[in-house]
Amino acid sequence: MMRHFGLLTCLAAGTCLFSPSVMAEPVALLHARLVDGTGAAAKPDMTIIIDHGQIVSIGQAPESGVRTLDLHGKTVMPALISDHSHVGLVDGMTTASRNYTRAIILAALEQYRRYGVLTVTALGLNKSPLFDQLRREQHQGVNPGADLFGVDQGIGAPGGMPPEAMVDKMGHDQIFRPHTPQEARQAVDRMADEGTDFVKIWLDDLHLTNPAKPPLPLLGAPVWQAAMAEAHKRHLRVAVHIHDLDLAHQALAHGADILAHGVRDKPVDTALITQLRTTGAWYIPTLSLDESTYYFAEHPEVLSQSVVYDAMSPALRDTVADKNWRKSTLAKPASAAAHGALAMNERNLLALYRGGVHIGFGTDSGATPLRLPGFAEHRELVLLVQAGLTPLQAINLATQQAAALLGLQDRGVLAVGKRADLLVIDGAPDRTISDIDLISQVWQRGTPVSDGLVPKGKTP
Ligand SMILES: [Zn+2]
Fold first, then answer.
1. Which is nearest to 378 in space by CA: 324, 326, 452, 317?
2. TM spans, by residue (predicted)?
3. Residues with Cβ within 5 Å of ion ligand 1?
């Protein structure tokens, strides 16, 4: 009992929030409601024994002498995994190349962790060698924060996506913009040599996202197809940024492995479902991306919730509190377009889910000041349920399926032999998905690393 108390004291004091090595001594979590990530219904009153960072037993009573933690009334579920985020782009209200620093990236990875996201995939616009170095360090647990995977730079269009204006002074160290198939192959080879996890290609003219502006030039088909072929030659999977159904079809026809966003211009057809199913390609809807365009302008009252307030920079809080900013944001054609895009995205997600397509979990968090690391993932869960999934199905996407997209066998579900990357929640997110905001403990590799989002004094 003293040791149990000691653990919580350690958390309350704000120390012991980071341990580079796993806890050597076993611990038993008692009387927990277990949501294991597979989509199975919650199991009441479970005992989870953790040793050396892994789950070694579920369901059995603890051996005598094992340190215990009573989680009566709480739900334990796997940590969340993002298949589509970005790091090092945003600082306050700026999105700029100069923000790609170790300090800014590690602060974001700590924020993801506090919000229960323990694995983050930064899908392009990363500078090597810093990104490659940080990935290695996060894999080894050298720094506090989420584990990190991703795409080094990625392949954009000359004069097109991702727009130069989106990330100020973004140079060739952050994005390749090949003009020829030969340049595209060289760009892929460079990323492959640096050890990228995937290749990313942007196929979007942004005309429906920014209806007030002229469409951006697209990558030439021979160029992006050469990049895709070269990636596969180097045994790398290709994630493609798409918005429109036609380009989604084209990308899949040439071997795209992951559609990194949902189709938002028109309803998906049976041909797309068949393409996704026969190729086994993944689909990441990123529902909260479009919602982020208007959400805080429409709902400034959420600033009073600590789960929102704490996720924001002081500069963003000031912005959201500014009536003129809210008014001008909501008047923009892009906000109206985003409402339509979200509705279409939700409808398509449900059709593809019911069609048996592999669905991943991502948000594009970290790509703009309005897509908040960690909070965006909580909104994504809520929107998946709004789209028609059950809370258990949404959680399954954000855990087991998200890990499967990344090819990670060691996480995503709570089962014997898996990493003890888990969340303790003062609620039941499998019944009420917004209870994901009630994280009271985050455990990473078997060690409590954060006292989560519930104000102190409420833990047992
Ligand atoms: Zn993105």
1. 452
2. none
3. 123, 364
Number of neighbours of residue 428 by Cβ within 10 angstroms: 18
Tell me, in angstroms, the distance from the centre of ligand 1 to residue 367's CA.
6
Question: 3-24: per-residue pLDDT in tens?
Answer: 332 333 333 333 333 344 455 6
Q: Residue 129: is the preceding peptide bond cis (ω within 30°)?
A: yes
Residue showing tokens 């009153």:
45
* CB proximity list for 106: less than 8 A, separation 6 or greater: 134, 143, 144, 145
How many whole angstroms separate alpha carbon 144 and alpha carbon 132? Answer: 17
Q: Which residue ranges form the domains of the chain, and what is each CATH number?
A: 2-77+411-450 (2.30.40.10), 152-406 (3.20.20.140)
Query: What is the arithmetic mean of pLDDT over 263-270?
Result: 97
- 364 C-alpha vs ligand 1 centroid, how far in Å? 5
Q: Is residue 29 a contact partner of residue 23, using CB atoms and an 8 Å limit?
A: no
With residues binned 3-state (H G I as helix, E B as strand, rest as coil), the percentages for the chain, rounded to 5, are 40, 20, 40
CA distances from 373 to 19, 70, 159, 307 (A): 22, 30, 28, 12
- Give residue 45 CA to ligand 1 midpoint distance, Å: 40
Euclidean distance between the first and final Cα of the chain, in Å?
A: 13
Convert the pLDDT of each residue in 99-146 to its tens digit. 999 999 999 999 999 999 999 999 999 999 999 999 999 999 999 999
How remote is the CA of residue 236 from the centroid of ligand 1, in Å?
18
